Amino acid sequence: MNYLDFEKPIEDLIEQLEKVKGTHAQGKVNMAETIEQLEKKIDELKKDVYGKLSNWQRVQLSRHPDRPYTMDYLQYIAPDFIELHGDRVVNDDKAIIGGFGTIDGQTFMIIGQQKGRNTKERQFRNFGMANPDGYRKALRLMKLAEKFGKPILTLIDTPGASPGLEAEERGQGEAIAKNLMEMAVLKVPIICIVIGEGASGGALGIGIGDRVMMMEYSWYSVISPENCSSILWRSWDYKEKAADALKLTPNDMLKNGLIDGIIEEPLGGAHYNPQEAAEILKREVKKIFKALKDVSSEKLIESRINKFSEMGVYKEEV
Amino acid sequence: MSWFKRVKEGITTKSKEKKYIPDGLWNKCPKCKAITQSKDLAENKYVCPSCNYHHKISSEDYFQILFDEQKYKELYAEIVSGDPLNFFDTKSYKDRLIETQTKTGLKDALRVGVGKINGTKTIISCMDFGFIGGSMGSVVGEKIARSIDYARENQIPLIIISKSGGARMMEAAFSLMQMAKTSAKLALLNQEGIPYLSILTDPTTGGVTASFAMLGDFNIAEPDALIGFAGPRVIRETIGKDLPKGFQSSEFLQEHGFVDFIVSRTEMKDKIGSLLKMIACKKTSTKKTEKIDS
């Protein structure tokens, strides 16, 4: 386990607990009572620490090195997942993966950004930053789902679309724009879940859904707090302030009517118990799909477009 | 110790002390430094006569250039931003809006006009770079959405002239969702077979590129405009190298297949006018066939 700075007190207690458990397992001393006390103490401390997180700390949690990524969720929610590669034009982007899988008997087209766990993996996955090829692959697979009448589930987790020479040459802007337009009129139900970072157009490029959800410790906005700080304050030092100003937490996003719901995480965050997090996510997906599966495609498309059309705050002066 | 000591101070004017210089009688081209009379420059559609540099111009200038007899009706002029997040960076968004409105005389970064282009009734949504970098917030999104609805109701072509740094950060996720909003509306326009011409001018970047600007049935660019998703500075920092010459220019985009054609502003009206005539709206074209049949 890795621990962030503000998680250190919890780390100390968990270490203590493991030591005591070790002694207990040797069978010489009965430590059952101490273990129970310690576990209770850890729970209380977790409730305290995670109950008063700053917005910046929430952003840090969304990037926690142990946080489950798309493939970790897939392992639990759709173990029979068959990955489908390539955009049929130039490439197979490694930062976005997709394919068919069944979630408790129902086939879904599941598409998500994938980050890497170590340096080598991170490079291979380009830090979860997709090139145009990734967005085009995603659209190809979504059209495939439409063809076979299967619902779509997207898992969003990206620090942004890839900025680079190749991305621009192959039309990063066009690829994302096309996805926004095409997803708006897909005939099958689309469920989108921000599982970690939801940064800008890179996230939105697979984020036009009938239901857009956010996990408890994820964030979603037009820019990362660091980049916002660098642009508006012309310095990297105002990321905490930017994290507050951007109103990027699930609660703020829900309050502003920009997402449809929040998915709870295990106490302290998905990284303490990825399996439990996946179970909760699966339950939500099933619940949402149940509500969408009998809606006609015309109605789906109409309410999807209406939902996004109503977003925005403006006044009309007389 | 350095060998030479600066005796004279360098440039010490802070950017906030810079004075706004009103348009005079003469204009110096920022590219070739040629001096042109302002009147001549306006007559040449604000294109430098010696180096073809396209000066950044306002929505009003574009309306004057494109609409027949410079006549048009402005729509949705009364929509203004609502500061949904109570945003505060170095100053409050509310103050920034009022300040910019006073300075530019504009309500926000986009204006909508309806009129005729070489006889074809057309609706134009045109961005103003002078208003917070032409950034897209709720007002820009709403005005574009309404102009798309107007084009659908009246079965007339839509032109959007982009000139923008991207999303408006002070409206955070609200501005992000304008990308979804405008693209979703364009999907409806697309289904109805109404032509949409996207005109890309210097600069068109970020969330605007990644939504309506790249979705034209025709993507048309002014010469040598900066068009891209990520800004050049960001890319340079990411790859740690200087960018190749002409990277993200209109010509670069045409070469890579993302722009249909590049047209000088001096010929824009005529070229667009003929294109609109050729592809006239579905409704009118079916009517014409009916006439021929009878």
Essential attributes:
heterodimer, A: about 325 residues, alpha/beta, 2-enoyl-CoA Hydratase, Chain A, domain 1, 2 domains, eight-stranded mixed β-sheet, 14 helices, globular, B: about 290 residues, seven-stranded mixed β-sheet, two-stranded antiparallel ribbon, 10 helices
Question: How would you summarize the topology of this molecule?
Answer:
The complex is a heterodimer of chains A (318) and B (294).
Chain A: H1 8-26, H2 32-51, H3 55-62, H4 70-77, E1 82-83, E2 96-103, E3 106-113, H5 119-124, H6 132-147, E4 152-158, H7 165-169, H8 172-184, E5 190-199, H9 200-204, E6 211-215, E7 219-221, H10 225-233, H11 239-245, H12 250-255, E8 261-263, H13 274-292, H14 297-309, E9 314-316
Parallel strand pairs in A: 3-4, 4-5, 5-6, 5-7, 6-8
Antiparallel strand pairs in A: 1-2, 2-3
Chain B: E1 26-28, E2 35-37, H1 38-43, H2 59-66, E3 72-75, E4 79-81, H3 93-104, E5 110-117, E6 120-127, H4 138-154, E7 158-164, H5 172-191, E8 196-204, H6 206-209, E9 218-221, H7 232-239, H8 250-255, E10 261-262, H9 265-279, H10 282-293
Parallel strand pairs in B: 6-7, 7-8, 8-9, 9-10
Antiparallel strand pairs in B: 1-2, 3-5, 5-6
What this model shows, in words?
The complex is a heterodimer of chains A (318) and B (294). Chain A has 318 residues and is of the alpha/beta class. Chain A is built from 14 helices and nine strands. Chain A has two domains: 48 residues; 251 residues, Alpha-Beta Complex (2-enoyl-CoA Hydratase, Chain A, domain 1), CATH 3.90.226. In chain A, strand 5, helix 9 and strand 6 form a beta-alpha-beta unit. Chain B has 294 residues and is α/β, with parallel strands linked by helices. Chain B folds into two domains: 42 residues, no CATH class; 223 residues, 2-enoyl-CoA Hydratase, Chain A, domain 1 (Alpha-Beta Complex), CATH 3.90.226. In chain B, the strands form two sheets. A seven-stranded mixed sheet of chain B has the order 3-5-6-7-8-9-10, sandwiched between helices. In chain B, strands 1-2 form a two-stranded antiparallel sheet. In chain B, helix 5 links the parallel strand 7 and strand 8. In chain B, helix 4 packs parallel to helix 5. The longest helix of chain B has 20 residues. The termini of chain B are far apart. The relative contact order of chain B is 0.11. Chains A and B meet through helix 7, helix 8, helix 9, helix 10 and helix 11 of A and strand 4, helix 4, helix 5, helix 6 and helix 7 of B. Strand 9 of chain A pairs antiparallel with strand 4 of chain B.
